[in-house]
Amino acid sequence: MHTADPFLFQLFFIFVWAKLFGEVFERLRLPAVLGEILAGVVIGPYGAGLVVPTDAIYAIAGIGAIFLLFTVGLETQPKDLISVGRTSLYVALAGIALPLLLGYTYMIARHHPPHEALFVAAAMMATSVGITARVLGDLQVTQTRAARIVLGAAVFDDVLGMIVLAVVVGIVSSTGLEWAQLLITAIEAVGFALIMMFYAPRVVRRMEPGMERMSTRDAPLIIALAICLGLSYAAVKIGMAAIIGAFFAGLAFAEYSPRWNLRERVFSINEFLAPFFFFSMGARLNMGVFDRRLVVSAIVISVLAILSKLIGCGLPVLRAGWKTAAKVGVGMVPRGEVGLIVALVGLQMNIVSETAYALVIFMTGITTLVAPPIMKVLFRKDMVSQPALLERRKTAM
Amino acid sequence: MHTADPFLFQLFFIFVWAKLFGEVFERLRLPAVLGEILAGVVIGPYGAGLVVPTDAIYAIAGIGAIFLLFTVGLETQPKDLISVGRTSLYVALAGIALPLLLGYTYMIARHHPPHEALFVAAAMMATSVGITARVLGDLQVTQTRAARIVLGAAVFDDVLGMIVLAVVVGIVSSTGLEWAQLLITAIEAVGFALIMMFYAPRVVRRMEPGMERMSTRDAPLIIALAICLGLSYAAVKIGMAAIIGAFFAGLAFAEYSPRWNLRERVFSINEFLAPFFFFSMGARLNMGVFDRRLVVSAIVISVLAILSKLIGCGLPVLRAGWKTAAKVGVGMVPRGEVGLIVALVGLQMNIVSETAYALVIFMTGITTLVAPPIMKVLFRKDMVSQPALLERRKTAM
Question: Which pLDDT tens digit goes with each residue over B332-341?
Fold first, then answer.
């Protein structure tokens, strides 16, 4: 209500347009997220200029990013990580190493500064499991071996991606590239990840009786939110990105998320905040930077992003036949919110230029658009060969 | 993440302190809301000065106010309004008229400007049903006649309060006091209320099949949020306060709230946003303005606020015996978020001075603190005389 008019107007206007574009994309069977970003591009300051988000909107978008990653963490059950086995770990490792390597090499070859190259490469590494999971769910093939490997690998992928991002931010924040410093940051990040995955849930477990004795209504949600905000701030304080803290806070509560209904409740908060984040991502994209040279770069980066996941994630499972390898590879292709947020962190640290930011948005869009239809073709046979499941589906209706 | 450091720090710091104070208050069996406000007074710029909320925090607090009133609207079922009958309507009407009259007269007598007097009087009129409902629920006496009258009257009270607030804002916004203008505003406000209560739910009902066909996930929540933001903005645009629009948006969805699980989901959003609102309310309170004269005024205003509800709400039910009248009167005493928001609207319109704002906060605190213990004494007998309920309670445990 402070500075009521323009702020309230933007809240309403952005929310409605983001959701409208999202709805249209859903109807075209495209990911809603891309629609919400496109709304920002089309209506935002570099497009029609109908709305120029104020600082307050960007602040809300920032909270949206924090809660998005908090949700990703909440959905990452350390237990699953242990059960999915080595195959998924190898898939995730190779699927992170190859995009980093290819992305960095290409960006350096195109004479981008090393720090910027590192950020673009980091944005190329993280698979967005949401889009893949949804396609697999729609096809009712989540129980196939390939699908299980993909979903398991995506969990590792998130954790590894966050560790790499922490290291990248650490490298970029420090003056010059000192290998000793880099090693310390890497150890810190891995240690942080391990603590949040294996020790923090125990602390939460021990806190449980006390939490349920608390007089505050919804104590578990309140404490989870407080820890999410606290770790986000702590992450910034020690030179990482806020979202890294939010992600690890989610990990700590992942085990108790079903019992306390945390996921659904944080989800409700997301439903309100996330559109502002995705819209803002689009609003920051200056379409004017796309000259011929950048379009070539964007296409090459997108192709590299697709090939690196196809090969990196496909190779470790080649023994199971090329069809399984193809399924796993394609399933790992879509990049999403994590890549976007990495680009945003770089933009805010003044390391990623407008052009590199545009590359990342373009790459995210292409990978997200390309993968689902191919997945549908590849997994079609599994669908037909599972009459029992189809039967079950019918009786359920 | 924009201007990450101070903003993130404030988010974390304010959330944690508000909730800590809230928890302490709950343990002392006092309303948590007062604790969250006190956190703002103690830690905020006029207190220890540990945190000076930025514009972004005030923006979030503003959204918090909107969602608070949206929830109040969601909980106001027009059906209940019709069923509770005339007694509740009379209780609500007299319970609004008397505080307005007494408050306005006293403020004018103390040489406050008429507009300011009007705002303080308006802040004195609205009962906060949340606190009363909770006490009645704890005592398990919600089924007594007195409790049903109170809960019914509180529903009317909200709607009538919003209409009066709309008129007050209308009066203050227009230049000079024109009676024709005033009449038009009053008719507009009443018409708006009637439409949102009786026509809008039908529109929602007709929209329902379309909503469930929509591809967007959680379409009902998204549409409810969009309409809440839209009506808030529209209310500001036509010269009312944003919260009035939010309240009426809630009314329109009240009927469908249980089916779509709206209340619980907006509640999750509230859990995150409301602490910023209450903290900000406290942070705006300059304790330095409390000189001897203001303390006297604050006590008088508080006494008037209590007496006016006791008498205004007690008289219409005096026929049912003075005990029932006392129960109804005391049950209507606590003022809460609506009064606070009225004061805030006045502060932001530069009509309410720091001293008048302090009066309202003081009055809200006193009425909220005084009523629950008296209610417990008055309703104790009903509790003992309901062995069946107590029995049911035991077996449920």
Answer: 999 877 788 8
